[in-house]
């Protein structure tokens, strides 16, 4: 079966799903408060994974899909930052879609909160598709490049190193690569993975749809983007998943090319509609161990 195209996926939005649920009489229960409540209550998910090349364990806090904007405010971001710091991670990794604002909109409140993240090995992130929309890439003019560069510098001032088709040696035994967004950026996987050598390799990618196209084995890939579907129904799962591969990479542990393990987070924020259903927001703590 041929996966749906991006244009076909765009026709099935979460807003349209909500309208359909209302038409079926299912939306009343959600709008009664359960869905909205679930959208703003998050949990810490603890996972463990062996990674070839590591010489000692690593604790990584993974936060993705913050979607700061009309539906997600400073108080939510502050709670996530505090929860991440309380886990005492060695490194903090951010999976993109920080912004859900109009091009030229104010990002200072978000950056002020992200500046509070603390980890001895640093804080690193990649861009997501909503970030590019917030840059203004969907418009006709070229000004979005300047906006992206400006925000790259502002994130750096807040202590967040953005990786766009590049990587860093964050520990003697660990290389971290970050690839640009698959659908709205200009991804270059070989460039993101270049320089790892014999070290353990982690790859940050906002979108999991690049997993079948990895150019070689990677120790671990961390992704977001799908929100776990954001709205899941009993016995059905997520009717809408923003992926060419449907349910294949919707959430949790999955596998990429060359048997590469990957984890897809449900993310922390919401987009489209201010609710979740049977899909709790998550902050992920990964304990990575030598193999």
TrEMBL record:
Coiled coil stretches, renumbered: none
Keyword Cytoplasm attributed: no
Residue ranges annotated for the Calcineurin-like phosphoesterase domain, each copy included: 59-228
MF-aspect GO terms: metal ion binding; UDP-2,3-diacylglucosamine hydrolase activity
GO cellular component, one term: membrane
A single GO BP: lipid A biosynthetic process
Source organism superkingdom: Bacteria
A Pfam family the protein falls into: Metallophos
Stated name of the protein: Putative phosphohydrolase
